[in-house]
Amino acid sequence: xxxxxxxxxxxxxxxxxxxxxxxxxxxxxxxxxxxxxxxxxxxxxxxxxxxxxxxxxxxxxxxxxxxxxxxxxxxxxxxxxxxxxxxxxxxxxxxxxxxxxxxxxxxxxxxxxxxxxxxxxxxxxxxxxxxxxxxxxxxxxxxxxxxxxxxxx
Length: 153
Fold this sequence. Notes:
mainly alpha, elongated
């Protein structure tokens, strides 16, 4: 082997070998891929964005419900309607939310009875326990959504 002045021996070229050492060839290949990615990405992004139509979120069903002065809803119906209003205004929530309501008032022994016993809240599921009540019973899952409304499958 001869010395090229770089401190390492060179090997004779064999048919199929490149004249460039392998680490250098790998570095050039990576640099080429990165350069192509940087050049192609913005153009591809503009093409995809310009061709796709943005869909606006759906209109929420019904009216929004105001909370009472204490920060809770005044009835189960109000809590359920607030859930429906929130969930139908979002595609993701519409497909995944099953509305439940709970009255957060619980009798406590030794404490005088309060005058306001209606402290309703809603949730998209009953994982909080057995006190959560289903808002919209569904009798036919094929022809009703999770809010009890009829749909055409």
